[in-house]
């Protein structure tokens, strides 16, 4: 499961979630191992916070370019993963075509052939530093007093009310 599927991050589930899962499948297919093992909570934590081991840790014969593709698929931040499986397919075809040509693959960078076919806004608030500062100060004040108070956020749709909680903690 991708970090955002754990329910423990503020990221939305989108098509890059499937790309993360495909990356896990590729990892297991190429190494015979899962990148993270342990109790369920340890595995969930690892999917959120730990970088997966490199493929070369398990098999030295896997080309560096393939390793880069899988590592990009397994990025924790969905915005750093591939945007589409078309990009992954094109890169794997490029690698397959050039397997015998070390010079061509030497400077390979994952994401070169990636195509983002959907225009989307990043889940980040811009220009609200003063409001976030007020919220943080109010929360700290409430915690210091050990009191109970309510903070309400209002405004028109689309201004980032539902995203602000990730900035408060």
Radius of gyration: 21 Å
What is the fold-level CATH name, i.e. the topology of the largest domain?
Answer: Transferase(Phosphotransferase), domain 1
Overall number of domains = 2
> How many H/I helices?
7
Q: How widely separated are the two ends?
A: 24 Å
Biggest pleated-sheet summary: none
Q: Quick one: how many beta strands? A: 0
Question: So what's the CATH class of the largest domain?
Answer: Mainly Alpha
Order of helices and strands: HHHHHHH
Structural class: mainly alpha
**Uncertain segments of ≥5 residues (pLDDT<50)?**
none
Approximately how much helix is present in the residues? 40-55%
Task: Label the CATH architecture of the largest domain.
Answer: Orthogonal Bundle
| The CATH superfamily title of the largest domain | Transferase(Phosphotransferase) domain 1
* Content of β-strand: under 5%
Your description of this structure?
By secondary structure, the chain is mainly α. The chain has two domains: 3-106, Transferase(Phosphotransferase) domain 1 (Transferase(Phosphotransferase), domain 1, Orthogonal Bundle), CATH 1.10.510.10; 129-168, no CATH class. Helix content is 45%, strand content 0%. The chain is built from seven helices and no strands. Helix 1 packs antiparallel against helix 3. The longest helix is centred in the first third of the chain and has 17 residues, at 15-31. The two termini are 24 Å apart.
